[in-house]
Amino acid sequence: MMQEQIIGRVISVDSFRVMIELDASVKTLYKSGFNDIYEIARINSYVSIPVGAEKIIAMITRVKISDETELEASDSSILLPKSRRYVIATMIGTINNANKYIQGVYNFPILDNPVCYVLREDLEIIFDYKPKCSVIDLKNDYYLPIGKSPAFSEFDIKINPDKFLNKHVAVLGNTGSGKSCTIASIFQSMFRGKFQTEEGLKTLTQAHVVIFDTNGEYKKAFQFEEEELKSRVNTFTITKEGLKVPYWFMNYDDLDYLFEPSYQTQAPIFKNAISLAKKDSGVEEEDSIKQRYLLKVLGLIEDMQQDFKLKNYIKLELEGHLEYIEQNLSEYKDDFHKLLEAGKDLKESRGYWNGPLNMSLLQEVRSNILSKMTSPEGSAVENGSDEENIDLPTYFNFKKLFIKSIDDAIKMTVDSELKYKEYLSSLKLRLSSYYYDERISIPFMLKSGKIHDALNHYLQYVLGVLVDHEQANEFGSYRFSSTNVFNPKQKSQVTILDMSLLPYEVLENITGLIGRLLLEFVQRIEKVEEYKDYRGKYPIVIVLEEAQNYIPQVDRKKDRVSISKRVFERIAREGRKYGLSLIVSSQRPSELSKTILSQCNTFIVHRLQNPEDQSYVKQLVSSANADILNQLPILPQQHAIIMGDAVKSPAQVRLTDVEPKPDSGDPEFFSQWLGNKVDIDIKKVTKEWVGDGD
C-alpha cells in the first residue's frame, strides 16, 4: 500500500457501517495519484480499507462536516473552530488474498485503521471486468451488462443471468419510474448478447419467457428491427382473441374460488357434481349414478343410530323413485318394494315419521343389494372415492354440470332432495349466469366442445412451441392466423399474454391457472422414465407485471384465499428446484404478498415515494443496505438500486436504454390539448367493445 493512497482513518465501526475522518490535508473531492486523479468523498463511490493482506470495500452513503473548538487553559487566547470532515460508508464486500471480490465482510477494521481511495485495478475486480474475448464461466462470472454505474461511468453493472433468474427477482417502483423498461432492457440484453463459452460463441436460442402483461405494454418492446433477432426470438403475443384457458383445466380449488359455493351445504354437492360431470362417457356416468344411489341406500340402512333419515327416505322419497328404479335398476326393484314394506308401520306426527322398522326385512334388503353389487354381473363396489378425478384436467360439459350433474349429485345425498335443491338453487343460477356472460364464458371457453389432446396443445401454445399447422384446434388456429408472431412454424422464445382487456373478475383465476399448469408441467418432467434425470432442464421464466393486482397480501374475498396468490406463493417456494422462476413487478410492494417477496433474492428498486412502501422494502432486504435505500425517493427515471445474489455488490445503476421501448410512455396531455389532434371515432371503439350488435 502506498502512503499516498491514504485519505483518512476509521474512527467508528459497527456491524456493517464505518465512520471515517478525512485527513486535514484532503481539501477537495479529488486526490492526485501516481496514475490518475481519484474521487475522495462522493456519494455511491467506494473507499478501500486494508485489513492485513485483504481490502474491505465500503460504499459512501453520507458525507458531513463538523466545526469543533479545542479548549485550552488560557484566558488570553481566542480560538477559532476547526472543521473536520467525516464520511459514513457501508461495508459491502472484500477483495481477498486471491484478488477476488466477494460480497460480504468477515474481517473488520479497527479504530485508526487507514482508509484509501480505490484504484482502477480494485474497480476492475469489483465490477468483474474482463477483456471482450475472455471465455465466460456461466456459473460464476458476472458477465451480462444491464447498465452503467453513475459513480464510475467507465464500468458496467453486470449480473450473472443464472443467479438472476434462478432465485426470483423483484422489480419495484412508482408508476412511470421505469419498471417495464428495466425488464425489457434486461431481456433485450440477453437476446442481443453474444457469449464466448468453452464451446464457442453462442446466442440464446432455447429461452422460455412467459410475460403476464396486464397493461398491454410489452409487445412493442420485442418487435425488433434486426431481422436475425426478430426471427430468432420470434415473439408470440396472445391478445384478447387468443387469451383463453379451457375451463376443464381448473381443479376444484380454482372452481371453488370462481363460483364460491357455500362451504356447509353447496360445496360437497358441487364437488360430487363435478366428479360426475368428468366421467368420460354417458354410459360410465349412468353406471356411476346407479352405484352411488345404491350406496346411499346401504348407508341409510347401516346408520341405524340416525334411523330418522331412513324413515324419511322410505316415506318421503322412495315412492317417487320407483319409476327410476324399475327403468334403471330393475334387478333391484323387489328389494326396494321390501324396503317400503319394512316401513309400513311408520306414522307421521308433527312433521316426523315415527314407529318401528321391520329389522329382518332391512337386513334382507341390505344383504341382497350387496350380493348383487359384488357379483360378476353387477357393478362392483369401488374402494375409495370417485372424487379423485376432480382435479384431473379432463373434459366435462359445463352446461350439463348445472343442468343435470348437480341434480344427480343431490339424488345421492342422504338427506332430503327437496331441501338440497333449495340450497343449490343459488349456485346453479350463478353457474348459469357465468355461462351466458361472454366476459367470463369466452376466456374460460365454457361453451367449447372437447378438444383432442387439449393439455398438450395448450402448454405448447403458451410456451410458444406449437409449430404444427395441422393441429386444427382453437390454439393452433390462432397462432397460424395471427399477425402477432413473426413465423408461426418456428419456436418462440418469448410469449406475451396480453391481459389488458381481461375482465377483473377472472384475472386471478386466469393467471393462477396458467401459473399452476406451468408448475405442474415442470414438476412432472422427471416422472417420465426417459426424463428421470431432467429435473430443471426445461427452465421457464414467468414475468408478473403489476403483480399486486392478482397476488395481493390482503385477500379480496372475505372467506377465500386468492387462488393466484396460492399458486404463485407455491412457485416462489418450490419452483426454483424445477426450473420455474418469477420476475415480480409492482408499484405497491406493501400490497404484494409478503411470502413471494421474501423468496426473491435479487431486487431492482426504482423510485419509491410512499413511506409505507419504502419501509416495507427495507424490511425485506439486508439491513446493511438500509443506507443505500435512503436514496429511493430521489432516484431519477431509468435509475435503480440493484442488490442481491445476481450482482457482485449492491449499487445504483443507470439501466441500459431500451430499444424498442415498451408502450408505457407518458401521455402528452398538453400537446394534444394545444391542437396536435388525433381523430378518434368513438363509434369504432364502441363497436370493437360490444361487437356488431346494439
UniProtKB/TrEMBL annotation:
Residues 145-352 form the Helicase HerA central domain. Signal peptide: none annotated. It comes from the Bacteria. SUPFAM superfamilies: P-loop containing nucleoside triphosphate hydrolases. InterPro entries: HerA-like, HerA_central, P-loop_NTPase. This is DUF87 domain-containing protein. It comes from Brevibacillus gelatini.
